[in-house]
Amino acid sequence: MLKKLVLSSLVLASSIFAAQEVNIYSHRHYDTDKKLFKMFEAKTGIKVNVVKAKANALINRIESEGKNSPADVLITVDAGRLQLAKSKGIFQSIESEYLNANIPKIYRDSDNQWFALTKRARVAVVKKDSGIENEFVTYEDLANPKFKGMIVVRSSSNIYNQSLLAAMIEHHDEAYALSWAKGMVANMARSPKGNDRAQVKAVANGIGKIAIANTYYIGKMVHNKDKSQRDAVAKMKIFFPVFKDGGTHINISGAGVTKYAPNKVNAIKFIEFLASKDAQELFATKSYEYPVLAGTKSSKIVSSWGTFKEDNISINSLGENNAKAVKIFNKASWK
Questions:
Q1: What would the pLDDT profile of 38-48 be if each residue is shown by its tens digit?
Q2: pTM of the predicted structure, to 2 decimals
């Protein structure tokens, strides 16, 4: 009898111990995230297991694994990808008083299937003292023929550009968005290539006058080990365009609990932790992203760029308009 009790206790203890983990499938690839995983482990005693890959690969993997997927949380960037994951039935709705109270409604899924963790503004980057930023105010202005040969931007396959166009659809309509995309193509200084940093370096080196990029890339260039990136960004400054009837375009990184999460409780705790003050401060100071938690300060470098009015459309609409945006890019011959 004693042996049975001891064996039963060992099995129970083993079961409890095994449950103290959370499995993260993450598209983010920053050292900041590694620190956050360790902070969560130290705070909760819950072990964090991480699988890293590109967003679409992770989404396809979770979809193919089905009920047998070990994934508890999917972390990725941009509302377009989060909405794609939702449309494939990868997430589940969760109840969290903390997340509902601390993440603004505009930055979480309408069904509570995913929640924004950080924000990035998609801005114009121009040479200091060029004065070109005085020639435009809105994203719509950038399609004006007077900017012919001045714009450098990455390809239409990039999710950040897709969400920018999705926002244009939301603010106007598909016909206007097509006209705008054609105008942008006509104004390009070169065919789209490279990432956001490559656009900034191009303008710094005299190719075009206006680079379109996400803010956090600028922070990373300022503190990069690569001298060519530091030298390039030192010549530049940020300008925050707005939509005619809104504000500066925002895209996000975010997370959701997977449909068949084996450690659902731990998964919710993990996302709540990423939305906590300590985590949000680390995102802000080390990844140069804007925090979603009210009252959290941005880093000094980010704050030095100035304040801006955030766009007023729901982040959900960016994902919902993604397929339309892709079709419009093709029609506009935006490579």
A1: 999 999 999 99
A2: 0.88
